[in-house]
Amino acid sequence: MNLNVFVNNFLGFIQSVRDIPWLRWFLRFLALSQAIEPVGWPTSFPLKDGDSFDFIVVGAGSGGATVAARLSEIPQWKVLLLEAGGDPPAASVIPSLFATLAHTESDWDYTAQLDEGIGQSHPGGKIFMTRGKMLGGSSSNNYEIYARGVPEDYNEWSEVASGWDWNTVLYYFKKLERMTDPVVLSNPYNAKLHSTSGPVAISRPKANAVFEKINERVLNAYEEIGIKRVLENNGPEIVGASRPHFTFADGRRSSTAEAYLRPAQDRPNFFVTKFARVTNVLIDPLTNRAHGVRVMINSSEKIDVFANMEVILSAGSIDTPKILMLSGIGPSEILEPLHINVITDLPVGKNLQDHSYTPLVFTGQRGIQTAIQNVFVASELDAYPTPTQTSFLKVNSSHYNDRREKPNIQTFNIHVGATAAPIILYGCRTIINYDEDYCFSMSKANIYNEIDVTSVLLLHPLSRGQVKLRSNNPFDAPIIELGYYRNKKDVDLTVEAVKFMLRLTETSYYQKVGSKVVKLKVKGCEGLEYGTDAYWRCYVVNSVSSILHPVGTCAMGPDGVVDERLRVYNIKGLRIVDASIMPLIPSGNTNIPTIMIGEKAADMIKEDYNFTWR
Ligand SMILES: Cc1cc2nc3c(=O)[nH]c(=O)nc-3n(C[C@H](O)[C@H](O)[C@H](O)COP(=O)(O)OP(=O)(O)OC[C@H]3O[C@@H](n4cnc5c(N)ncnc54)[C@H](O)[C@@H]3O)c2cc1C
Which UniProt keywords apply (predicted)? Predict the structure, then answer.
């Protein structure tokens, strides 16, 4: 047993007795020490020009690491996994440090564009579109919120792609999951939806007493405005509020690098090459068969490697469409002006859906004593750094004429003690790219007061964006048009949800502390009277940002890019396994649905080659 395995097992034990304060501190120390030690990740296979494999998987993220590791369970298959980045750094492994990963070498550091007149509080209408560039992809730098979506999401998928209904995908949600929360497991209604034997570790560790008290306060306030409290957000009740579960446990992030690649790395038929950036798929012009990929190794050497059976693209919702278009698969109106030969005209890059959000900031208690909670952030090194609550709700959807049984809004709240203003300013400017006026008005509110930053997320936008090529140079970043609010009904629903959440100031705790909604300086809304309908409409339009869930750019379905078995139309030997295949964005965060896609894809591929694996 190596040191990491031993330490992980030990941490698991300590997690179960973590109410004892000195043990908790010991746990944090160990979490940090094992993250710093860079052992346990797969070593990089030295790829050579002309090498051949059975399957080549491009991108080791939520979808790619999962499908590659599962395919390598068949000993006869030689599986190559190519990843443009390297190992996850310590800040990825330590659960509380995710915010420090933006703009590092582990981030693609893309910028997304808003349409003119939308999101004017972002200089130039630009939003930083962080994507993980390392083993585990965005599962290694995301914010670790655990969400599956609701049954209706997948039943709707199955209307365009058979075999993706809830009952089928639930099997894979359970297959991937190692639920460690005793509260969920001890309730029979909830427990039956969960599993304790999958690779992705899920927890909701008890926080310190100060955080717990704050969580209670916020959840009570939610109840007062009519959002009921539920045991968990992935249980039988599809609307309601709770503390979320997280994709970490035992002081360590459970990315797909951790959950799938580390356990599979010693298989003799499994090869992982890091710092290997694929520029295009090699397609035989006579047969339209994908037979390999062109790869840039260590930013210097360009080589071709070959796939006897299939190439699987798992580069994510931004890079998979980019690679396809550079390979001649995509809309002719984009490829032809760039002098790319069109092999097949498919709606690649279209149908981009994302969860946009509008932040609301509420002031809480005033006084230096509220700064105390910031001290406790350090004590949550192995867990979540702030008190955090999430809720799923269905606000009046008359504008949508929507009868579907699913939530249409998610809220995500982080509570920050007073005097964290410099950190708020940093996050607001550097991570999200709001302008100075906006960020100063937010951080100023926190100098003497604690604040709640409540993001109101639109779960099922009708608007669509698009990923386009900037040029035919594979090293140029693509154009990412988020397309928010192209359909005005999305504005209507968000305004309605924002107004609903404003009622928090009427609840007992918020009243007691004299809570106010912070008047953020939103560009474009200067002349409007605060609190009017016109004001909130302007606020929603111009303070919008991205929760970083782009999906759907290579959608599954008859009008899309892949069929229900994820095979690219008109091309043999080419599949897509990542968030880009989602025909509709689910009711919640997108990491776990993407891992589910990886699990199901692996089984479908095994079936297609007559290996049944259930
Ligand atoms: C900052 C952030 C916070 C988020 N928070 C949450 C959250 O709290 N909960 C949640 O559920 N979801 C969250 N998400 C979303 C979720 O993580 C993603 O939807 C999911 O990881 C997407 O998986 P994927 O496989 O499609 O892409 P990725 O996981 O991004 O994987 C793509 C992989 O392909 C590699 N790649 C790309 N191009 C190439 C190339 N040309 N050659 C070789 N390799 C390449 C990339 O480096 C990457 O490793 C967040 C995302 C981000 C970025």
Answer: FAD, Flavoprotein
Q: Are 340 and 368 found together in one domain?
A: no
Domain with 558 in it = 48-88+255-348+551-585
pLDDT value of residue 513: 94
Residues contributing to the annotated binding site: 278
Residues 362 and 505 in one domain: yes
Regarding whether 387 and 259 lie in a shared domain, the answer is no
| Same domain? 433 vs 577 | no
Average pLDDT, the chain: 93
Instruction: Report the alpha-carbon distance of residue 597 to residue 256 in Å, rounded.
Output: 13
- Residues 18 and 59 reside in one and the same domain: no
Nearest CA to ligand 1 atom 53: 131
Say what percent of the chain tops pLDDT 90: 86
Q: How far is the C-alpha of 6 from the C-alpha of 13, rounded, in Å?
A: 11
Distance 549 CA to ligand 1 centre (A): 9
Paired strand residues for 307? 53
Q: Do 401 and 288 belong together in one domain?
A: no
- Spatial neighbors of 345 by CB under 8 A, at least 6 apart, are 330, 331, 332
Whether residue 299 has pLDDT greater than 70: yes
User: What's the ipTM?
Assistant: 1.00
Ligand 1 centroid distance, CA of 108 (Å): 10
CATH number, domain with residue 496: 3.30.410.40
Segment 305-341, tens digit of pLDDT: 999 999 999 999 999 999 999 999 999 999 999 999 9
Residue 533 is which amino acid?
Answer: D
Among this protein's residues, is 549 annotated catalytic? Answer: yes
Q: Please report which confidence band the pLDDT of residue 379 belongs to, taking 50, 70 and 90 as the band edges.
A: confident
Mutate to test the pocket of ligand 1, among 82, 128, 135, 138 (most ligand atoms within 8 A of CB): 138
End-to-end CA distance of the chain: 29
Question: How much distance in Å is there from the Cα of 67 to the middle of ligand 1?
Answer: 14
pLDDT for 388-419, tens place per residue?
999 999 997 655 666 678 999 999 999 999 99
* CA-wise closest residue to 65 among 602, 603, 572: 602
Count of structural domains, the chain = 3
The answer to whether residue 538 is domain-embedded is: yes
Q: Residues forming the annotated binding site for FAD?
A: 278
Q: CB of 134 within 8 A of CB of 85?
A: yes
pLDDT at 381: 81
Residue of 122, 291, 355, 549 marked catalytic: 549
User: Taking CB atoms and a 6 Å cutoff, what residues make up the pocket around ligand 1?
Assistant: 58-64, 82-85, 130-133, 137-139, 141-145, 147, 277-278, 314-317, 319, 323, 548-549, 578-579, 589-592, 594
CA of 120 to the centre of ligand 1 (A): 27
In terms of domains, do 239 and 379 share one?
A: yes
